[in-house]
Specification:
Strand content: 15-25%
Distance between the termini: 84 Å
CATH class of one domain: Alpha Beta
CATH topology of one domain: Alpha-Beta Plaits
Structural class: alpha+beta
Shape: elongated
Order of helices and strands: HHEHEEEEHH
């Protein structure tokens, strides 16, 4: 019985000691004038300041891409998909789709280095929120021109609008 009471006392004492350490650090760092993240940075309206070498969501220039597949080959997780077709009567390819799956991307920037025409680079976009996994798959060829050409930052509204299908894929069973 004595051993049992000693075990209970030891359990209560160690939990209380851990709580005291937690409370002590909380009192040291508590600041009543401290603001929340959104109050400090005004996040949705103004972009969050990031470091110059921050590796955010990619920026891609559709006009200079020569569809060489070097970025897709360099990607260690195979998250870049390039659809291309040969240009009739000319040399080279035309990019149909340039898709990055951000559920796989680890933002290592290994796709930026091998590009011979510097059409892909890491941007400073901090957040690309979505409610489903297909919202994390970005097709840069379907984005608005200023975003797809790398002149504007990638934002969730532009990505969501690029996924809206304006025409049905097929006419249905009656057509």
């Amino acid at each position: 019985m004595r051993r049992w009471l000693l075990d209970i006392w030891t359990a209560v004492f160690t939990v209380a000691q851990g709580l005291w350490i937690t409370l002590r650090y909380w009192f040291k760092t508590y600041n009543p004038q401290r603001r929340t993240f959104t109050q400090h940075f005004e996040y949705p309206e103004l972009p969050v300041p990031v470091a110059p070498r921050y590796r955010g969501f990619h920026r891609y220039d559709l006009t200079t891409c020569i569809a060489c597949d070097q970025c897709a080959k360099a990607c260690p997780v195979d998250c870049i998909y390039i659809g291309k077709e040969r240009v009739p009567g000319a040399k080279g390819f035309r990019v149909n789709t340039f898709t990055i799956d951000y559920t796989k991307c680890m933002f290592c920037a290994l796709c930026v280095e091998p590009c011979p025409v510097d059409c892909i680079f890491m941007g400073a976009t901090h957040d690309l929120s979505c409610y489903s996994r297909d919202g994390c798959i970005v097709d840069f060829s379907r984005l608005p021109v200023d975003v797809a050409w790398g002149r504007a930052t990638l934002n969730p509204a532009a990505v969501a609008m690029s996924k809206v299908i304006t025409e049905p894929v097929h006419g249905g069973p009656n057509q």
